[in-house]
Design brief:
By secondary structure, this protein is α+β, with helices and mostly antiparallel strands. The chain is 46% helix and 12% strand. ATP binds at residue 49.
Length: 875
Amino acid sequence: MRPGPDAPLPVVGELFAGRYRVEALLGRGGMGSVYRVHDRELDERIALKLLDAASTSGSSVERFRREVRLARRVTHHNVARTYDLGEHGGLHFLTMELVEGSNLRDWLRKFRPNPARVVELAGQIAAGLGSAHAAGIIHRDLKPSNVLLDLSGGPQTRGASAMRVALTDFGVARMSAEQTVGGGGRGMLGTPAYMAPEQVAGEETTPATDLYALGLMIFEMLAGRLPFSGDNAVALALARLREEPVALDEEAIPGAMRPLLARTLARDPGQRYVDALAFLAELDGLRGELGAPGARTLTESERRVDIEADTGLATEMATGAPLGTVGPGEEPRSGPESRTGIGADSGTGSDTGSGTGSVELRSRAGAPTTTSRRMFGTSSSLGLGRRGKPLAVLPFRYRGPADSAYLVDAMLEELTDLLSQTRGLEVSSAGATRRFGELDERDPRTLGRELGVALIVDGTVQLVGSLDAQRSQGPGDRGPRLRVSARVLDVEGGFQLWSDRFDGEFADVFEIQDKLCKRIAEALRVELEIIGDDVPDDLEAIESYMRARSAKLLWRLRGPDGAIALYKQTLARAPRFKAALAGLAFASMRGWFLPEGDVDADYDWPRECAEAVAMAMEWAPDHAETRVAAAALAIQNADLRGGALHLREALRIAPTCALAHEYLGRLLIEGPKPARGVAHLEQALQLDPELEWCKGDLARYKALRGDLDGYQRLVDELSASSDRYRMPTALMQLRVGAWTGDRSRIEWARDQSDPTSWDNAERVAHTLAQTLLADYDIAAIEGFYNVAMGQSSNTRAQTYFTQIIAEQCAYHGDLERALHYLEVAAELLLTDALWLDNCPLFEALRGGQLGDEAAQRFATLRQKTRRRADAVLTP
């Protein structure tokens, strides 16, 4: 039974499910609420966690069940007990131990433990983790708000004055054996501020991942702060990828604990303790060296400087750090502090939270050749005033023949000019920085203070070979090679935010210079567009926004953990956050194109997309992403001219917006000016090498123009670069195989796909390959078509499926039926004049070989398609 969105939640005093008397609402997250209830059958107070009616999709309920299954596998004094899973009136709930007391985050706001107390607490945390690890479970979201403190202690708790620790919230926990299932350990799962480097990088998680989080908490308990800095949680997470391991020599860290902390916080998980029990064995050896456990009460001034506030994060999360904090529209909780065994921390990725986002950090393949790159992340100094972020470009270091050193001056001028045109930056003149060209030591903090800037662009230019030698050689001989490396440095922190490298012939110097300038400008633009808004001070809003942004980049758009849901959670807390409004509009339009599944079969895509775009256009019209989303909606409504105008406005706002170049290129390559489309797609790929499907569009263009060698080169590049495009490439291969009569391409596509896969694209590719390779079976082909059309309300997606069915019929020689489906596509939203004019399967239709009536029908649909395609060019 699935409840309606307005299903009533329990109220205080109500008897829920005939058994649980509701006593208090303890907290509420993005997907659930936690109550203190009295179990009448057992005469015991427990915690009841309820999945909200709006979150009862299949995947949400399955995650709810998963949380219970995993938590029940761990039975230990230092793990909060989970009792049961139930359903009442269509609402899913679980029951678990009620821990009377506080959580570690709240407690640290009031007290500073001495080293002996830290060892005692860390020992209990490690013991609980050890039990989970022994059961094959990795927590993956360990943090102070998920460590509950029972102030009454207990008979199994060491020390007469000790507090009992109870670990909670296994919402993003995972069995070790599941690391390779459904994407393995890929993706950023957990709370960014407490993530291990391998989590931030989207790599496999192990018990050592939990130990890294424990090491951060130990450092925090001793020093009163986290060992990394950044003005939001994601900046904290990224810092551990680019900063050296933390220094442990400060006074607050006892010498006896430094070796243990250094090993626990090692960047390489292989250098950490193998599991919690190994860590605990070494920790136990410290107990006699640190005296008696204790804690001092923080002064008022110390309390005001909260640990999370020190890093630029909001300290009062509506359902985050303390469950006792209330959200908008909620009543404050009275009575003694209570903590459930489920933390309602919306930054956790748990069911009551903002959902699990995923960040995947990968190197990018550049052009001509990019061999090194770091993600540009927000640093502690990236706060942006209304006037813009001050930046300076230093003269690049030069290595090569003296007669070519002028390259440095030319590049300084070019970079300065281009970056000066980037919205949100104030760039120092080339004259102001030229004097630093002879410096060997370039400390960014020193130079930044002298220049009065927050960011510095620095780099090297290396020329291998002599121009004079080249002049004496023949015209076919290779010239000198040029390598340009660039980086963006944060003045306040002194660390590197972004880097890239370009290789090429000396003759390519202007092309390399142009690409370098645009790549830096785009990397800065994306971040500055966000920071330039009125960014909310709400940690939950910031974290859900960053998760949404990451999920969107990975095309994880739908469901409770998808970008759309996460953007909505952000906007529920920060309704006028422009970057989130623009992101929701874009993710909604992208999500609408995908076939629908059970997770959101009831979602009203036309209405939701129209509302998201309208809100973004009202409050964030100056964001390039808003304009790209508005373009997609206009085109979906058959207004191609309006869509093209939005894309051109996006490029006026941000000339380096890769998404706008990609979309405009995709439209133009289908119309009467395909060369312009090619140029935009190549530009998009240069600006953002992760937009690799631009290669798919370019490959398809080459195939339709008869350049199969060029097509195959791009297909090979796509196949070698990432598994992400395996199925889109397979779909393209089977289509090109049908166009050219090459069964080997179709067989390759079939062999790449699994008909039993959870991935809808794999099932589609396999079905289409089979219907091409088998004898003509129109019932099977049209059966697939009817299912595909029923799974999407998006007109462009429906047009795509109709094009494929027309190809299938033509491949099997049924040109009359192929013509029918071409007419259906034209009635929908066919804009692909390039395909219609060049696809070999329709040669007989273009040549009028089916008679005058068929020729007239084809001419009519071609004219309609051409008129749409031409609209893109209309000013």
